[in-house]
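Example S7 (structure tokens).
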């Protein structure tokens, strides 16, 4: 009886409507029963979804543990683990199809867990755009991009201060956010993508990504210009040679 009283008090403290649990896709999550040991008269069931599909059952009196891996087209196959001492349920390598409501029943008591599964976040990619200038000041134009994301925010930070941000809800799309900084700027900038439970950050190295200074071009552009000029000079030499031959024959 004391065991049941403690369990009822614990579940009351965690909320009558159950617990909300967030997890990243590919990780494992454990739904805790709050028990420290199992009593002989307990029948424990874990159910999933709106249809309350039975996925595990523990009959302590019969010393039996059953895992129903083939239900729901086998989506839980090789993913469910039950603690023999506490009956807590662990779901391994979780996917979006495992998101939803899980119901725990211990005899006449019940409690629910609502699991939300978030996709693993990509690392933001920084793309250098052509240099911009305003009077005597040159700017480095950088685009921060991520692809195939949903329920995230993409932001630029100057140190710890937020500069700009863009968000997307449930649609899986690509996001881009521009930034312009002076070439001589010594501040630290970073692009951050985040959702409810995690984030990924890429830091902007102005000296590496924006290899230019006032009055000059980036190395790659300079080489291209020199090559083009050499080609023009060679073409001019050919024209002069042809004209010289024609003059001689005349």
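Recovered sequence:
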């Amino acid at each position: 009886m004391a065991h049941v009283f403690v369990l009822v008090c614990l579940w009351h403290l965690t909320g009558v409507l159950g617990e909300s649990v967030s997890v990243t896709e590919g990780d494992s999550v454990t739904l805790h029963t709050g028990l420290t040991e199992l009593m002989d008269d307990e029948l424990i069931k874990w159910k999933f979804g709106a249809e309350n599909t039975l996925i595990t059952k523990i009959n302590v009196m019969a010393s039996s543990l059953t895992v129903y891996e083939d239900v729901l087209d086998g989506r839980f196959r090789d993913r469910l683990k039950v603690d023999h001492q506490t009956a807590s349920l662990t779901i391994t390598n979780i996917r979006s199809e495992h998101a939803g409501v899980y119901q725990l029943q211990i005899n006449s008591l019940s409690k629910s867990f609502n699991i939300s599964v978030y996709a693993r976040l990509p690392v933001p990619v920084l793309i250098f755009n052509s240099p911009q200038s305003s009077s005597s000041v040159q700017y480095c134009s950088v685009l921060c991009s991520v692809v195939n994301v949903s329920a995230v925010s993409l932001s630029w930070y100057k140190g710890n201060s937020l500069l700009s941000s863009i968000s997307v809800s449930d649609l899986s799309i690509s996001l881009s956010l521009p930034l312009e900084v002076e070439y001589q700027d010594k501040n630290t900038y970073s692009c951050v993508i985040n959702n409810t439970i995690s984030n990924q950050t890429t830091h902007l190295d102005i000296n590496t990504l924006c290899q230019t200074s006032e009055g000059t071009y980036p190395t790659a552009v300079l080489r291209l210009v020199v090559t083009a000029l050499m080609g023009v000079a060679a073409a001019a030499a050919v024209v002069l040679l042809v004209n010289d031959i024609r003059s001689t024959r005349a």
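Notes on this example. The first strand starts at residue 19 and ends at 24.
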